[in-house]
Specification:
Blueprint: E1 4-5, H1 10-16, H2 29-32, H3 34-47, E2 51-53, H4 61-64, H5 71-74, H6 77-92, E3 98-103, H7 107-112, H8 115-131, E4 136-139, H9 145-158, E5 164-168, H10 181-191, E6 195-199, H11 204-220, E7 227-231, H12 262-274, E8 279-280, H13 288-297, H14 299-302, H15 322-325, H16 330-334, H17 372-387
Parallel strand pairs: 1-8, 2-3, 3-4, 4-5, 5-6, 6-7, 7-8
Helix pairs in contact: 3-6, 3-13, 6-8, 8-9, 9-10, 10-11, 12-13
């Protein structure tokens, strides 16, 4: 019946806690630091997550070996995906939650654009998810709808009966190859996805705008049984270009000034629900308190309230300071325009906008560590862009 609340962003949350390496962003912590992963699952469940996703983002074999990453040789694709499934089942199932296996974009796609090679790569992960009999699959974080289609097809070919969710990390207009956002939704539905939508790269309200375009196009194309999902960033990105927040100069270590407040998250949850989206969650930057805000906004619809709810500051009535007690109301928090604490901070940034994607020399991937020559080529390319 829905709505269903998803969990948040494991990659960024665990990197901030010291358990994920920024750059590769791969999930070997399920083996090297399992308690850290378990604790984050616990916190998302406590905040109200109905669907807990195995921490298998970027856990394809080619990504685990990409550019000097040793996770592939040290642990391997099977071991990492297997441990991730064991961990999430241990935490989610006792609380009555659902468990999702996860696929994401691969270096093989942007290097070869070979359909059979891409499918062969992700089937190594799908095998593990099928052995664990996860409740659903989430194919997410694709800049190119074509790769997402191939992943959905791979799941349906190898495991026809499992429900498949598919979401793209694109904006309101197109994917990075110029396919209109609405048409992308139709392509995912045609590939066999049961749920389609948007995740990552953009803030909640830009992701909502993109998902609404998918909803309109998918329904107009006659896919009446397809449902919709949205799992955005927890960062405000009105200035992000076609590559999303990755193009912003603050990525990845200085994004904190852009963090959404919990009340902005409540607004997102309400607008998503009213748009007909029934899988509502988060991606990079989402912490458990953000998921708790989604849960609070949808208490009546879900008949469930998290522990120690904010209730628009109701419990500030117990505060010792009268000016803080005066903030114990919805009107105050709903209309607050928070400051950054930085007198000369910019409200917007200028995205890099290199304008390159799959097929360009600089995005070709390999197992060796990035060479000095490659770094210099990238730096020279950036200099040439500045001259234009």
């Amino acid at each position: 019946q829905g709505p269903v609340i998803g969990d948040g962003g494991f990659v960024f949350a665990l990197e901030k806690r010291g358990y994920v390496e920024a750059g590769p962003w791969t999930p070997q912590s399920v083996i090297e630091h399992p308690e850290a992963v378990k604790q984050l699952h616990r916190e998302f469940v406590r905040a109200g997550a109905d669907v807990c996703q195995a921490f298998t983002f970027y856990a394809s074999e080619d990504k685990l070996k990409n550019r000097g990453n040793e996770a592939g040789a040290k642990h391997g694709v099977r071991a990492i995906n297997d441990e991730a499934c064991k961990i999430v089942k241990e935490i989610s199932y006792p609380e009555g939650g659902l468990v999702a296996g996860g696929l994401s974009q691969t270096p093989t796609y942007i290097t070869t654009k070979n359909k059979e090679k891409v499918k062969a790569e992700v089937k190594k992960q799908i095998e593990v998810f099928k052995e664990h009999n996860v409740d659903l699959m989430i194919c997410e974080y694709y800049e190119h709808v074509e790769e997402a289609e191939w992943h959905v097809e791979a799941v349906k070919e190898f495991w026809p009966e499992v429900p498949v969710c598919a979401s793209l990390s694109i904006n309101e207009d197109t994917d990075v190859h110029g396919v209109p956002t609405g048409a992308c939704g139709v392509k995912l539905a045609a590939a066999g996805a049961d749920v389609v939508g948007i995740n990552c790269h953009y803030d909640p309200f830009r992701c909502l705008a993109a998902t609404k375009k998918m909803i309109a196009a998918v329904k107009a194309s006659g896919y009446d049984k397809v449902h919709f999902m949205c799992q955005p960033l927890a960062y405000m990105t009105p200035d992000a270009s076609v590559q999303g927040f990755i193009d912003l100069p603050e990525f990845p270590f200085a994004l904190e000034p852009r963090i959404c407040t919990r009340f902005e998250m409540q607004r997102y949850a309400r607008e998503a629900y009213e748009a007909g989206i029934r899988f509502i969650g988060g991606c990079c930057g989402f912490e458990p308190y953000h998921i708790r805000a989604l849960s609070e906004e949808l208490v009546k619809e879900r008949d469930w309230e998290p522990t120690f709810p904010i209730r628009w500051g109701k419990f500030l009535e117990k505060h010792t300071k009268p000016w803080v007690r005066a903030r114990a109301n919805k009107e105050y928090w709903q209309n607050l325009n928070p400051g950054t604490g930085r007198p000369y901070s910019a409200s917007l940034s200028k995205p890099d906008q290199w304008g390159i994607t799959a097929g360009h020399e600089l995005v070709q991937q390999h197992e060796e560590w990035t060479s000095k020559e490659e770094l210099e080529k990238g730096q020279n390319f950036k200099k040439q862009l500045k001259k234009c």
